[in-house]
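The methods section describes the discrete structure representation at length, but only in general terms. What matters is that the chain and its backbone geometry are given together, residue for residue. Nothing conveys this as quickly as seeing an actual entry. For illustration, here is how one protein appears when written out as sequence plus structure tokens:
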Amino acid sequence: MKVLIVDDSRLARAELRRLLEAHPDVEVAGEARNAEEARAQLAAQPVDLLLLDIHMPGETGFELLASLEAAPPVVFTTAYDAHALRAFEVNALDYLLKPVQEARLGAALDKVRAQQPADAPSAAVEAAPVPAPATPLTAQDQVFVKDGERCWFVRLGEVRLFEINGSYTQIYFEQHRPLIPRTLSQLEARLDPKLFFRANRQQIINLNFVEGVEPWFSHSLRLTLRGGEVVEVSRQQSVRFRELLSL
């Protein structure tokens, strides 16, 4: 497991390094003193976890996340508990108060391990090259979503539907429906075609959330998603859907 430590305090970074030495499967991939340095390191290599301070000179930890198109799992480390609610609103795995306790850090690392696919090597074992911007994002990738004053840190595999809503795209995950300033074409270029399917001009669906399929007008199909949404697949895309899912 590769970890990037982001904290403006040298002593805090050194203490986290010391605590991580107790975990043989963890490798400190680097340290950053601020959001700018963190972005540069994330662009240079993939990591499995961000240990991220909130209050730093310049941008905060939240602002760093908002600037990333995709980010690894995050555990916040901070001397203040005032931002705990906001941290979990962006789906942080954990929120550790300084001085960080060894047991609490171990529990946070266990959460990261539990999320890693059993058959997928971690970045510490297989340091793959950084994907180019056009490389499709996987189901395990997490993206930061902001809609007004609310924000989320959501894994793409949990998104069941992308739908045009005016000049925005609406994202469906859990009970949330935030809007983002992206077109479906922009999203389709980044999404894994093995997981996400363009059903029509208005909607992209997550194939893992298809609960029911029924024939519809003019040889088209109508799909029901877990969550209750009903999607009518265009006639042309219905042909592709049948080919995609046929033996």
